[in-house]
Specification:
The protein has 10 helices and no strands. The protein is an all-alpha fold. The two termini are 30 Å apart. 36% of the residues are buried.
C-alpha cells in the first residue's frame, strides 16, 4: 500500500474519493509548497526543516507560509494531507490472492528502493516528532484502509472469503510484517517477502480470522 510522496510539479489528479481541491494557482502553490516540504524533509529531516527553506524552494513568501500554514508543523501536516488527495484504489486482479500480493508489492515499490523511499520514510520519521504529523499520518492510512472495502467485498462475492471479512484488518495485516522489517528490524523486503506476507493473510482470511464469529 503506497504512501505516494514523490516530488512533482503538478497537483494530484482531480476526482479522488471524498475530496474537494482548489484549482488553478492555489493548487499549484500548494503543490510547490508540498514539494519543498518533501525536499526539506529528505535533505534535513523534520528537526532541520524551516519555513525559510520551504519559502526559498517553493517560491512562496514566508509571510504567506506563516499566514496560511502557521509554521513547520502545519506545512508537514498539509503536505501529508495533500498526498492523500489522490485517486488510489486497491488492486483488482480477479482473485483475492492476486489482490493481496499486489497490495503487498506496492509497499515494496514505495519503500524497497532507497531513492523512492526517502520522502515517505522522512514523513514517517516526522510523525514520531510532531503530534500533528502523527495525526495526519493516521488519517492518511485510515483513509487508505477504508478504500480497501471493495477488495474484501469482491472476495466475498467470489466465495474466497467469509461474509463480513474486515477489509481494513486484512490490509493492515498484509502491510504489517513489511513495515516491521522496514522500520523495526531493518531487514530488506522484496517481491518474495511481499508474496509471503500476502499468502499468510490469505490463509487467515480463508480460516475466518478477519470475519465476525459465527
Amino acid at each position: 500500500m503506497q504512501l505516494e510522496l514523490q516530488l512533482s510539479s503538478e497537483a494530484p489528479s482531480t476526482g479522488s474519493p471524498g475530496t474537494v481541491r482548489p484549482g488553478g494557482r492555489t493548487a499549484r502553490t500548494r503543490a510547490a509548497v508540498r514539494d519543498a516540504v518533501l525536499a526539506g524533509l529528505v535533505e534535513h529531516g523534520y528537526p532541520g526543516l524551516t519555513v525559510e527553506y520551504v519559502a526559498e524552494h517553493s517560491g512562496v513568501h514566508k509571510t504567506t507560509l506563516y499566514r496560511r500554514w502557521g509554521g513547520v508543523e502545519g506545512l508537514v501536516t498539509d503536505a501529508l494531507d495533500f498526498a492523500g488527495e489522490d485517486s488510489w484504489t486497491p488492486p483488482d486482479t480477479g482473485s483475492l490472492q492476486g489482490d493481496l500480493r499486489a497490495l503487498a508489492r506496492e509497499v515494496v515499490d514505495a519503500f524497497g528502493d532507497p531513492a523512492n523511499a526517502a520522502a515517505p520514510t522522512a514523513f514517517i520519521a516526522a510523525a514520531f516528532q510532531s503530534p500533528r504529523a502523527a495525526d495526519a499520518l493516521h488519517r492518511f492510512y485510515s483513509e487508505r484502509f477504508a478504500r480497501c472495502a471493495p477488495l474484501a467485498a469482491r472476495a466475498v462475492e467470489r466465495g474466497e472469503a467469509p461474509a463480513g471479512t474486515d477489509s481494513g484488518a486484512v490490509a493492515r495485516a498484509v502491510s504489517a510484517p513489511l513495515f516491521l522489517r522496514l522500520f523495526i528490524t531493518r531487514e530488506p523486503i522484496d517481491a518474495d517477502i511481499a508474496d509471503q506476507a500476502a499468502d499468510a493473510v490469505l490463509a487467515a482470511v480463508r480460516a475466518g480470522v478477519y470475519a465476525p464469529p459465527a
